[in-house]
Amino acid sequence: MLVYFPEPYRDELLYSLLARYHRHVGSSSPKQTLDDLFGCRGVIARLDLQGSLGHLSTHLPPGWGMSPERLAVDYTLFPYYLAFQPAGIRGRVLGALIGGSLAGLHLLLGLASAASRIRQLRFCPVCVLEMENTHGEPYWRRTHQLPGALLCPDHGVILRSSGIPSALGNRHAFIAATSANCDCGREVAPTSLENDETLLSVARACRQALEFMPQARNRETWATWYRNGLIRAGLSSSSGRVKLNELEERFRDHFGLALQPLLADVGLADMSWLVALTQRPSRALHPLLNILLQKFLKGLVSDEPFGTGPWPCLNPLSGHQGELLVERVATHRNRGRIVGVFECACGYAYARNVDQSSGTLSRPRPLRFGAEFDRQIRQLVDDQIGIRQAARWLHVDPRTVRLHAAKLNLNAIWAAASVSMPVVCDSGGRRKAWMDLQQKYPNLGRNALSKLEPALFMWLYRHDKEWLVTNQPAAKVSRRVRVVSPWASLDLEWMQRVADLAEEIRQELPPRKVTLAEICRRTADPIWLSSHLRRLPNTAVLLGRLRDTTASFQVRRVAWAAHELENAGQCLAVWRIRRKAGLSRQVAMEVKAALELAVSPRVPLP
Ligand SMILES: [Zn+2]
Ligand SMILES: [Zn+2]
Question: What Pfam families does UniProt report for this protein, alphabetically (predicted)?
Answer without folding.
Answer: TniQ (PF06527), TnsD (PF15978)
